[in-house]
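Example 308.
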Amino acid sequence: MTDPAPGSSPVLSYRGVDVTYPGGGHAARGIDLDVAAGECLALVGESGCGKTTIARAAVGLLPPGTRVSGSIRVRGVEVVGAGPRTLRALRGRAIGYVGQDPYAACNPLHRVGGHVAEAWRALALRPPPGGVGSALAALGIADPAVTARRHPHEWSGGMLQRATIAAAAAHDPPVIVADEPTTALDADRADGVLAGLRATGAGVLLVSHDLLAVAGHADRVAVCYAGRVVETGPTADVLDRPRHPYTRALLAATPRPGAGLPEPLPGTPPPPTDTGPGCPFAQRCPEADADCHTLAPGLEDDLACHHR
Ligand code: SF4
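Predicted structure in complex with iron/sulfur cluster:
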């Protein structure tokens, strides 16, 4: 289980969470996670490793027919099995959501200020006088009275993503779930967006495949593989001294400025319908032995691997 920072109670917690898609694929299994007030926990891993599913389960944004079991609490309120009224009451006030593509999040025919004002209208409120401008200014957007009147196509991707963060943070929710918020951005803009997320002061559950960005902004990291957390801990520990073979492979595959060519990860993750025995990484793991193909390791001491 990921432990929050000492002395702080979690604003978001998962206990024994399983997610099964309508076709029977297990997208997440036995997830135990905590996000403490004001900290950033990054979920990292390849595409299809389950990190987005795990994050979206907290905001009730999974496809119809998806089964979620276990417990997910947002500041103590249970999300699993919650009805639409409870979820509506939580969204915006207790938990904000930032998606991958800010252009998709904004109506292209509406001004960006209108998109931010939606954060109030969704709760049947009027934005307070100057509220939209203040929300944008808090995310470092200059001259918000003017820029808020522009349409999304007149904004850069990085600035527009900051506007969606402003909307997500408009009511100071204790938790923000950010699903690959920097995917389409270059390193400088990604840095600005992640700094903006941290500046909200919320506990952030950050989904990312960008280990370099995570290294600069997350307090803790949970490495996901085949719908499980396989290694977790403080960011510097996990990224500087990785213990799991998958974490080491991910880091070796990460392009770095000035470094040589990265080593591509061999093979592909198992499909979510694969319920065979053994470690789910065994087919790709250079350290696999006979036990690895028959016994699935559990997460103990923040590591799911037979070889310690
Ligand atoms: S349990 Fe075995 S196959 Fe799985 S990561 Fe560890 S060494 Fe590799």
